[in-house]
Amino acid sequence: MDITADREAALLAQVPTGLLINGEWRDAEGGKTFDVEDPATGKVLLSIADATAADGALAMDAAAAAQDAWARTAPRERGEILRRAFELVTERAEDFALLMTLEMGKPLAEARGEVAYGAEFLRWFSEEAVRVSGRYGMSPDGKSRLMVNKKPVGPCLLITPWNFPLAMATRKIAPAVAAGCTMVLKPAKLTPLTSQLFAAVMVEAGLPAGVLNVVSTTSAGDVTGPIMKDERLRKVSFTGSTPVGQSLIRDAADRVLRTSMELGGNAPFVVFEDADIDKAVTGAMAAKLRNMGEACTAANRFIVHESVADEFAEKFAAKVGAMTTARGTEDESTIGPLIDAKSRDKVHSLVVDAVDGGAVAVVGGAPVDGPGYFYQPTVLKDVAADARILQEEIFGPVAPVVTFATEDEAVALANNTEYGLVAYVFTEDLNRGLRIGEKLETGMLGLNAGVVSNAAAPFGGVKQSGLGREGGAEGIEEYLYTQYVGIADPSDG
Ligand code: NAP
């Protein structure tokens, strides 16, 4: 059943429109607001408070004031808050899914998938909250005792992108809550509504005032710049593009802030001649078309053995060509709009450059007319080695296919990028898969799998894809520091 306008209006009416500072929803300084649009229609969904630097300072004050008491809260209590939040998000899964579809564009089925994935970080870290432990032991010479404690790093600045509005927030907020850190969250201006609703859920789950403060804004740098300079801030965790991440790392250097950086990607998707091609095509659909290709983990380059490249491209193009571009709320939608006109134009310019260089569009290759920022899902073959589309993050539903002859060539092509987030390898030879995995310079590898994201696993990249890991046992470590206590030999009396 298609979603009705009434249902949309009723949901939007539940989204808080203020800034969350010290447990209260309040207007921005001077009553400033900004509009959030539906990328499928270009229509305004809601206007919300537009934080200024002064609002950011108040949020920082609130986070700093709440830190000591929050760090002393029982880990079980923090875990229970996260558990309640998991249950509340799960109960309201349809609301969160619809809200993400409205502001970000992804089809409802995918938005439901993101709700489950995003909620899983709440459940996972509710369990991790009570597992933080240190150690106590004798020094090697027997003359002292060594005690090692883990402590929350302190107030954190969290900055999230627009492409996964719920999961990118919970992946940071849940471990910070579990560790005992307070936060200022700055969501992306294109999709802040999910964070606004999620923050209300955290309050409902019992999070004390000041622990999570949310400053949606159209002036990212103006709001976060002074916070980065604030001597009470201890950490910045950022998910977004590599250039913005690099500039935040430079700013973090001034105060030697802890950083977690989840940055851009240029994932290779390697198909060997011994792969199960149908399995590879299924994996390719997930790795490329999920989220309209607007994912840091999106397969950016299909590197296929020359003996199976035509078969792979044809089967892949047949599935891609059968997708239906439509507003994500519509039942038939399997691919929604891109986030804005700028993104759609960039995707098209990459396709035009590739085609000018000799590539052939097996399917797709053009924007879709009409309202919204839709782009035809596209498969390109015969892509020249120097095409821009192989170097840059596409962030759209376009799959360039190139070929290789030897294993060494496949590895060299796969590693030929400054990014190192994830790679996908399809082969029926497990030894080969593991061998290639050892040679690939990426933080993650999908082996015969087109999706790697899992709350229980350490997500993150190497090279210019970032620093640190989110999720898994590693995720909470990003919000803890180690304190060692040297103790004189107690047997000396
Ligand atoms: P972006 O332009 O870098 O923005 C990300 C966030 O940073 C937004 O909240 C943005 O605010 C904010 N921002 C922009 N300029 C800033 C500044 N000077 N100071 C402080 N904050 C600033 O990235 P995006 O376009 O939203 O997201 C797409 C990128 O994110 C892609 O490169 C993708 O690969 C990457 N990504 C990585 C991961 C990962 O886990 N590795 C996951 C998802 C996405 P505004 O909204 O106001 O611009």
List keywords for this structure.
seven-stranded mixed β-sheet; Aldehyde Dehydrogenase, Chain A, domain 1; Aldehyde Dehydrogenase, Chain A, domain 2; alpha/beta; 16 helices; about 500 residues; six-stranded mixed β-sheet; 2 domains; about 20% strand; binds NADP nicotinamide-adenine-dinucleotide phosphate; single chain
In short:
The chain has 493 residues and is α/β, with parallel strands linked by helices. Helices cover 40% and strands 21% of the residues. Helix 3 packs across helix 7 and helix 4 crosses helix 5 (108-128).
How does this structure look, described?
The protein has 493 residues and is an alpha/beta fold. It folds into 2 domains: 5-263 and 466-482, Aldehyde Dehydrogenase, Chain A, domain 1; 267-454, Aldehyde Dehydrogenase, Chain A, domain 2 (3-Layer(aba) Sandwich). 40% of the residues lie in helices and 21% in strands. It contains 16 helices and 22 strands. The protein has helices at residues 5-12, 53-71, 75-91, 93-104, 108-128, 167-179, 193-204, 220-229, 242-255, 277-289, 309-321, 341-356, 388-391, 407-415, 430-439, 472-477, and strands at 19-21, 24-26, 33-37, 44-49, 135-138, 144-152, 156-159, 183-186, 212-214, 235-239, 258-262, 267-271, 299-305, 360-363, 378-381, 398-404, 419-420, 422-426, 444-447, 462-463, 466-467, 480-488. The strands form 6 sheets. The protein has a 7-stranded mixed β-sheet, sandwiched between helices. A 6-stranded mixed β-sheet has the order 9-8-7-10-11-21, with helices on both faces. Helix 6 (167-179) links the parallel strand 7 and strand 8 (183-186). The longest helix has 21 residues, at 108-128. The protein is globular and about 75 Å long. The N and C termini lie far apart (76 Å). Bound molecules: NADP nicotinamide-adenine-dinucleotide phosphate. The site of NADP nicotinamide-adenine-dinucleotide phosphate has 28 residues, from helix 8 and helix 9. Residues 159-164, 168, 186, 188-190, 220-221, 224, 239-241, 244, 247, 262-265, 296, 393, 421, 461, 466 line the site of NADP nicotinamide-adenine-dinucleotide phosphate (NAP).
